[in-house]
Amino acid sequence: MRTPRAICHGTPALAVSLALATALSGCAGQREGDPSGTGGHATAGCSSPAPAPSPIETAGATMYGSIGALDQALAEIRRAAEDRFADVFAGVWVVSEEGHAIVYRVPSAEFDAYAESVSGGQCLYLRDADHSHAALLALVRRISDDTAYWRERGITVHETSPRYDGSGVTVGVEQVEQARIELPKRYGTRIPIEVAESLGFVPL
Q1: What's residue 201's pLDDT?
Q2: Average pLDDT along the chain
């Protein structure tokens, strides 16, 4: 299974991010600068954000614990994103070291008001997205269903996932240049498709 935060090596079959939770983390670039920044519409809690969790040093890496109230607010948003705001919600980036989160959504005053109402005084930055997570996931599933189609045409697709910021989908293939030409012919260009090299299963 491939999530936006990390590529997991698996079988040569297509790895697809199907759960809504995969929109909660990411490594793809986003259009408003570094995701740790504070651009976008800020909820009231950003005027006096909660203290960031204390860093934890482990195995040479710095990690941060979660903030219960922030997690609760994001859980409420995720639940609403499954139905009421399925055509609006795009994804979330949690900036643990700063104690806030960035929520990507197709511009919607109704969603913004809802996010404010469930924020619980936590700091959320609401940023514009071009596409909802649901729209991206529909394309991901379509590409997944076409794995055999692409194999017959000399393109080996190993993984695909929606980008957490709603900007498009990422597809991992072996034949990058060929895929960059052929995929838009089949799926169009309304939703951008980023093609990256992926070799699938890599034996140790």
Answers
A1: 62
A2: 81
Q: Exposed e or buried b for every residue in 168-184, given b needs 16+ CB within 10 A? A: bbbbbbbbeeebeebbe
Q: List the domain range (segments joined by +) for residue 168.
A: 15-19+133-197
pTM: 0.77
Q: What is the pLDDT of residues 105-135, one digit of tens each?
A: 999 999 999 999 999 999 999 999 999 999 9
- Contacts of 68-71 with CB under 8 Å at 24 or more apart are 69/120, 69/121, 69/122, 70/94, 70/99, 70/100, 70/101, 70/122, 70/123
Residues 182, 101: one domain? no
- Does a structural domain hold residue 10? no
Q: Are residues 97 and 37 part of one domain?
A: yes
Single residue among 128, 148, 171 that ends a domain in this structure: 128
Pairing of strands 100-105, 124-128: parallel
